[in-house]
Amino acid sequence: MRKLLSTLALFFSLLTITFGQSSKAQPKLQTNSDVRLPVKRVVLYKNGVGYFEHSARVQGNQELTIDFTTAQLNDVLKSLTAVDLGEGRVSSIRYNSVAPLDQRLKALRLPFGSQVNQADFLSALRGARVEVRSGSSSATGHLLSVEKERKSNGKGDYADVTAFSIVSDAGEMRNYELGPATSVRLVEKDLNQEVGRYLGLVGSSRAIDLRRMTLTANGSGDRQVFVSYISEVPIWKSTYRIILGDKPDQKPLLQGWAIVDNTVGEDWNDVQLSLVAGAPQSFIQNISQPYYVRRPIVELPTAVMLTPQSHEGTLTDLGNLSPGILAPPPVPVAGTTGLRGVITDPSGAVVPGARVTVRNEESGQSQSTVTDARGVYEFYSVQAGNSALFVTMPGFKQFNLTNFYLGIGRTNEIDGRLDVANTSETVTVAAEPMTVQTSTASLAAIADKQHIEAEGKDLGDYFEYSIKQKITIGKNQSALVPILQARIDAEKVSLWNEESNEIRRALWVTNSSDLTLDSGTFNIIDAGAFAGEGQLETVHPKERRLISYAADPALRITMDSDKSDHPITHIRIAKGNMIITQEERESRKYTLHNSDTTPRQVVIEHPAREGWKMAKGAKPEETTASSLRFRVGVGPGKTEAMDLEEFHPGDSTYELSELDDDEVVLLTDQKRVTPAMQDAFRRILDQKNVIDDLNTQLKAKTTEQENIAKDQARVRENMKALKGSAEEKALLQRYARQLDSQEDQLDQLNRSIADIRSKQSVEDAKLDQMIQAITLDESF
Hints:
The protein has 780 residues and is α+β, with helices and mostly antiparallel strands.
């Protein structure tokens, strides 16, 4: 916007155009009885939303005002609550609404957008009476045309100039170039005033970003009026100071501060401030902006547009063409051509008032026009050749078409589509220096006192700091607000973590205050000097937390590890399965050396792994989701060691029905077989031997059966080959007797196989029953 205004100012100084009085900005809404409705309570949340309460005493009928910024207005409109707490009511609420600049500019007769240049300005004034002075000559007439031309300075360099022409009162056409020596004055008073109105609208967009809301309370007597709403605000932040005592038995002092920013349109004078560490659901909706919808353009019926005509001898009547069809342009001047088209938006609707510019790429000459109510643009005399077309319209992306050829002797038609632009509004705020609204008591005076600056309160999933004292923060100012000052339990330690392999100075603090500590930054003051800083996550009352703030270069820590597999530690037999537990063990040795002259309490964060357990009764002092914390004391100049051993039980499952002698021998060699287990294993193996014997018998009978079947097949093939001689008949009788004998054998084998299979079923059932009956649980 500043660039636009600077361009306009330069242009108008060059043209020395004399304008009438600009319309004045509308005054702020005031009444004789209006009363400021001050803010009394502010609640700030962690999601960038604030809850505001205003209240005031009124008498009779009264108008109350509240100032907002434009950024606040949308939130206020969708959350405003206004209540008359006495014998009255809030009858109306109004505020000064400002339509978008582009929409307000449409009310002018001049086809100006929010962006305008010299050529655009003069083109829009075509036909107006102007007085032109160039050097010692002057002329008065009507502005005819405005063109961009490329001219040479005689040295081979080219420059674009704006040329315009007028038709003087004497009927003479005179040509001028726009430059420092040329001035143009508008002669028509009403047009001069229209330009002034345009400049006034553009200038009003730089007005202070303020919205004043007026509430009318109608009633009788003295009563209270209450108003509340939410508004977008900066997120409040927490920061802490931990001051370590000089004496060993002195608890550290914890100070908590909240950084609060007032960016709304009202001063906060003696307000009750609450800070909530929570983020309730909230959203933005642009309901304060007036919306305009595009109405369709409906052409008049053809019957309405009929003109008188002769019905004899008429071949073509352009007056009867449909209004939506472009009429043929006039014949262009020699060497030039005509160009026309229709400009539409993404929905296909026509776009009136769009600025269309065509430029010849060879000569650099260009012409501009605007689309009419049908979205149609027309150029009647355009230089032929390689050309480019540009279409601009506020609210749309620019349409560019380059490197196309305009030919002579034919109709050139090029349509364009404008896509909707993505717009955004940026507000730059110049913040004033931060102010601190707190007492000036020295640190020495408060070092031995415990004072809670805020009262804590649980709000379901949130918690709240309710500041005891009233707070004053001017608009566009910030403040450090005290929320806590209390003695806490804290121990100075050194912290080592295997993953980071860094040794840090840390505090093991316990929140002994009654307030939940919100997440934020902290810094440490030790021995009267800065010792370090860090980040603090949310700490609830009575919760213990380890916080680190600096490196500890005086401490060295190394770690050695060893892994091994141990024998079977547990055997459990149930439901036909044997589960054998065998441990995986890992030992770690931590070696710590303190080269300082003061002792160290070292916290080692040993990794916590799922399924692993500490051996030899080792117990950590504290456990987190990822670490086991062990404490080791190291004297000045001393070296200490800490041994930790972990085991991880691993289970293997076997089916007892698959038990064999080798597995029993393995368990026996490891001395993991008790007498009860040995008896159970022996009974299972004996029963499996019985079943194996039956399987061997069955296999032998089956083999014998298969051999007889093969021999019978051979005999039958031989019988088929006999010819019927006496010897052959004797052989046939022999084969028949052999087949009869084999059939007897097969019958006996079938009975034997059926008997063996029956015994198998019985023995299998006995084995299964035996296995299911065994239940043992032995540890070693």
